[in-house]
Structures are given as C-alpha cells and as structure tokens.
Amino acid sequence: METVNAFLTWTSLVVLGNPECLTVAQLVLVNRGISIERGLSVYVTENDLQFNISKKMDSCKVEVVLNEPVTQRVGKLTPEVFDCHFLPNEVKYVHNGCPLLKEDSVMLRVYRFTELETFVEKFVLHIEIRSSKSSLIQFGKISLEVPDFFGTSQPIDRNVLTFNYNKVSKACAVKIMPSEELLFPAVGQIVFADSRNQKNEDTSDYQKLQKARESKVSCSSNAACYSRFEKIELLKMSCEDFLEIGLRYQHLSPPSPDMDYIPIHVEIQGKKSRYPLQAENVWIPVMITGAIPNRQPQAAFMSMFILEIDEFILTPVTTVTLDAEDEDSPRERLVFNITKPPSQGYITHLEDHSKAITSFTWQDLYETKIAFQPPNISHSERQNYEVEFQAIDSFFMNSFPILVHFSIRGAETNAPRVSWNMGLNLLEGQSRPITWEILQIVDNDNLDAVQLLVVEGLIHGWLTIQGNKGFKFGVKDLRNGVVYYHHDDSDTASDDIVFRIFDGKHSLRHKFPINILPKDDSPPFLVNNLVLELKEGETVLIENRILMASDFDSSDDYILYTITEPPSAGEIIKQHFPDGSGVPVMTFLQRDLFHGSVYYHHFGGEIFQDSYEFTVADSQEPPNLSNPQIMMIYITPVKDHLPKEVPGTIRHLAVKEAEIVPITKDHLHFTDSELPDNQLIYTVTKPCFSPTSPRLHDSGKLIFMDSMKSYMENLTIPILSSFTQ
User: How does pLDDT run across 224-244, given as a tens digit for each residue?
Assistant: First the structure.
C-alpha cells in the first residue's frame, strides 16, 4: 500500500494533529488576558494583546472562533473579525452577569496575509471574572423562592432587590431578554398575572401587568392557579415599574436543581441627554424548595464508545459512538469538551472540516456534524487511539472523563481517496495556490492518472491552471503548484469547491472549503437617516435612531461624519453636557452620536426647512469615503413675533353722516411673517366712540358687508367684534 509522506515542516506538524501551525515565528507577541467585573464590559487594549506583525508590511486580521462552545460561556467578544492593530475602544468583551464561573476564555485565530502566503495561529484569550464592587442592584434579605415543584414565587419587589442610582438626574430601565439567548431561566419562566378573563379583552399589556399587582399569593401546582399567569418573553420598562408590576418566577420542569436564575439587563441614562451612563447584566437567583443540588452529567449506557475508521476517510462521530445524559438538563444543552485529543489526526466540525475543534455541542453530535479526520499517513497495521471527552451541563458541571476508542483500519481499495484537506485561508480579493501540502490524494494503482473536476461551488471566485482559467487538473498540477484559486473581491466570508475525483475506474465527490477574511475596502453605509423635527429656535439631540451608520469591516465607533454643506438656518454643535454650551463642528464621530453629544441648533429665523450635506468615512489609511448624503430638518414655527403695520397705511376714514363706507387695506393693513392674511385677526376692543362727545350714544358701528346687496343703512345689522385682514 502506498505511503503518503508529509515532506514539509508545516505538513509534518499537521500530521501530529494540529492543522493550524506555522513555519514562522509566533504571530502573538503579548497575550496577558483581561480582567472584568461580573456583568460589566471591558475593552481590550494593546497592553492585553499585541501581535508580532508590522502594520506597514502585511495585512493581518483576527477572527473570533465561534464553533467552540467551551469558550465564551459567560460573555462575548466583539467584533467577530478585527484588525491586528485595533483601535482603542474597538474590541470589547461583555460579561452576561452569570455568577457560576470565575473565569472565561475566547478562542481566536490570527491571520497574516502576504502576497503569496497565509500564516495562521490559534490562541486563547483568558478572562478573569471579579465580583462587582459597585453593582446597580442591591439584593434584599428575602430571596426569590418557589415553595414547591410547579410552584410560583412571590413577586419581585423591593423586598427582593433595589436599584442603586440617582433618581433626580438619572433614569433607570430594565430589560428581560428571551431565555433562548442565555439558556436561563433553565427550568422555569417569568410570568405575570393573566387578565384575559377580565371583561375588557382589549386591555393593554401594561394594564395587564398593572393588574398583576393585585395577586400576592404563591401558586402551587393546581391547574386553575397555573392558568392565571402569562409568560414573559421580552420586556423593557423603568426600574420602578419593574418592582411594582408583580413579576414572578414559575417552576416548570422537575426534577431540577435547587437553583435557577433570571437574567436582566439594567441601564442608567441621563434624563436630559438619554445617553447610557452605566449598564450591568445581573442574574437574579431563584431558590426551588424541595429540589436537590445540580448533579453532574454522565456517559450514556447505550453508546458503544468505539469508532471504526477507514484510513484517510473523514468519519462522522455520532451518538452511537459517544453520548451523555443529565438528570437536570436537557440533552440538547450538553456540551462535550475534548480533554485528550487523538495523537494523530483531529476532530472537526463539518461546516469547515479543515480546522480542528476542541469542543462541540450535543446537538451538533446528534445532527452528525462532528467528524474525525485521520492522519495522512498509511500504516500496514490497525492504529488505535484513546480519546477522552467530558460532558458539561448548562450549570457548567463536568462529567467524569468519557473514554472513546478510535480504531483506524487499512483499506484494500484502488479507488482514489483524499488523505488531507486543509482548505484555503485568504484575504478578500486575493489569490492562493492549491498545493500538495493543502490537498493530498492517494490512489494505490495509478496516482498520476487521478484527475480532479470542478462540479459545484466557485460561487465567489474561479480557478486557473498554469495561468489559464480551468476546471480540470491532475495530481501533477497540485504537486507543481500551478492550480490557483482567485477570489472575486466581493464581500463574502466563504466559498467552496466540490471536486469529482476519478482515476478512470472509480470516482468520489469531495468538498474543498475556502475561508475568506474581510478587507476594509468599502465605505460605511447609513442605517438610519430620518427627518429631524424641532421647534423654531430649539436645540435638539441627534439620536442614533435618527442618524446612524455602520461598517462591515471596521469599528462603528470610529466612523467619521464630515459636513460638506452646512445647514443654512442653524448649526451642528457638540455639547458634552445637556446644560452646557455647545461648540459648532464640521466633523463628528459615530461614538459622539452614541454618547449623546451631537445637537442641531436652530438660529430662530423664519426658515422652517433646513438640511445639511455630509459624507461618512471609516478609520482606514486612506479612508473609504461614502457618496454625499443629505439630512433633512423640519422646523415647527413658534408664535414669537408681533404683526407689523404696512408702511403707507393711513388709518383715517372720512364718512358723511348716515353713509356706509368700506374699510380697505389702504386704511388698515398689518402683516405677520408667520401667518397668512386669512389668519391675521383684528379684535374690536372698544366700539366706535366720539373723542369730543363721550356721551354720544351712536357714533356708528363696524358691520360685515359680505351679505349686503347695497350700501343702505340697516339698523338690524349686528355689530362686528372681529375680522381678518
């Protein structure tokens, strides 16, 4: 049987079971990890993480590995892809408030891209979790408690917890997120009193919540009581209302651990600026009376714990080979950690089988997405490996080690087989050769006759063989390094090629994955650009719900707005304090919008529609610049000017005795810049009188002539008390 030798250092390391090794010095220069208080967020700085890559020489990207469930267990690092030379306040870790772990980790992959090669290094960023020194929540002496299985707790009120903030100058809001995101509450749900049995079926959600205050008793397992409550999926309200509406925890799933948790997000804002000043994630503990402490998961008795593998063949690992069970958690929430990996080859996820994994979920195992890639070395005898796993439940309790035997047997076949497939990693728009070190094929009788034909894939690129576009090549072309993949420079994260590999007698289909890292070559784009409305002379905050941009390839915080045509009836100002004086600006950052410091100030003139033109650019050198954008501003007039008399108005009328004379605009004419003539109203404050004869009872009267057919005196016509211009 033919032996495939790995003849380069890089491939030799791969054979030992690590498909992400380098022939160069380490790319990670400093990795001190980060420390964070529970429930808060922290930015990664250059003191925490640095890379041994020159900014001027090569492109370098860092990618968060997302398919490792034993990492980011109680928090999340964002963004998912960032530059090695990241900016301050760009890379952030947010802790979700879970009190069960004192440490976390984030697995990352750093890529160095040269013109011809890609170097990859995988590493782990450790996170130390400390208790919060000044939490926004103070727990009371009374804990939230469920009296029995299927029971309902007492309401969440000021006896259970209180909020620490300045109620005079600050506002406090609470948000409850869907339980699917954090997997908690694990064995219960949040409920309030159901008012659907009330006579008014159209009662608003808030009124329903208010009616929940009336119910102050615990609920046991009887059906009538159980139906009185309605589940809360998503909720946001003020902190005061949160403590008054009577929310409760309802137990659903015995047997269960004696503790559960309700995760909430608390945010403090300035009352005037509405800018978030503080935020904290907190888990409210719930005690379940009668339950026992959480028990560790264990290996399932029905599994074989043996995996038979044909050499070179990517072999799925299923629940027949490996399985676990837990009396307190559903199986789909279990996670497997590979505590002792195979000495050769590696375990992988089928979404990208060119990369090794160290953990996976039970759900992926059940859906046959986990597989073992044997080493690319042929042996005359059967090879046996011992691989150890640990099952972890949703409360992070580990099982005892679970031992699985991997047995690789030789295959007596003349069909071609893929012995090694590392895939490609490249930067958007780059080209890379598909070489023998990356894609290796074995064939017992005639390896040189093996041909590879593209049958699917290549959605975002194309192949060239010896410089010409092609779709078919042989093993010799792989060895000579003349097969290249070219990316089409589109904004895509992945591509693949499905080959039909044949030797004239036998054939197989094989998928070749291509991982594409984004290149910052596109400008930011507007997410929100709504009309800004305000009153005449007013100064209003430009909130991010009105104006906001985003960028796929770089930090949103550093998006730069440049005003190319300023507003004519007002100005854009930066104002760091709501009551402070603003400074006119022609540029501002996206984070200034997030911080609530960008305002539009109207000068107070009689112009009621305004606009300004601007562009948005990212933080690259040179920056990627958008096309000009326009923001519209509508101003509501305020009645702050008196009507003015038109010059030349005589204010004098000569009338003969018993004569009726019309009063025209030559006699009485006022204008108002804010109102049309038909809305300018004269009000008669004193009827006609004689200044020389005050006792004269009949000095004439003002009348309305619209319905009169002639200028004849008529004593029945009523006196006019008001009229328009």
Answer: 445 567 888 888 888 998 898
Upper half-sphere CA count for residue 612 (Cβ side, 13 Å): 23
Q: Are 286 and 343 in contact (CB under 8 A)?
A: no
The amino acid that residue 683 corresponds to is T
Cβ–Cβ < 8 Å for 17, 109: no
Q: Would you call 193 helix, strand, or coil by DSSP? A: strand
Alpha-carbon distance 288 to 231, whole Å? 19
SS3 460: coil
How far apart CA 367 and CA 248 sit, in angstroms, is 36
Lay out the sheet containing 629-636: strands in order across: 532-535, 629-636, 609-617, 560-565, 587-589
Under 8 Å between Cβ of 152 and 191? yes
| Total length of the chain | 725
pLDDT 10s digits, 291-308: 889 899 999 988 889 999
d(CA 250, CA 229): 9
Bridge partners, 49 (sequence order):
31
**SS3 per residue for 358-412:** CEEEHHHHHCCCEEEECCCCCCCCCEEEEEEEEEECCCCCECCCEEEEEEEECCC
- Are the C-beta atoms of 499 and 472 separated by less than 8 Å? no
CA–CA separation, 572 and 600 (whole Å): 5
Q: Cα–chain-centroid distance for residue 683? A: 60
Which amino acid would we find at residue 631? Answer: M
The model's pTM is 0.76
| Distance, CA of 553 to CA of 80 (rounded, Å) | 10
What are the start-end ranges of the E strands in 131-210? 137-139, 144-146, 161-163, 170-176, 188-193
Q: Assess contact for 613 and 629: CB atoms under 8 A.
A: yes
Say if CB 476 and CB 433 are below 8 A apart.
Answer: no
* Chain segment 266-284, per-residue pLDDT in tens: 998 877 767 778 899 999 9
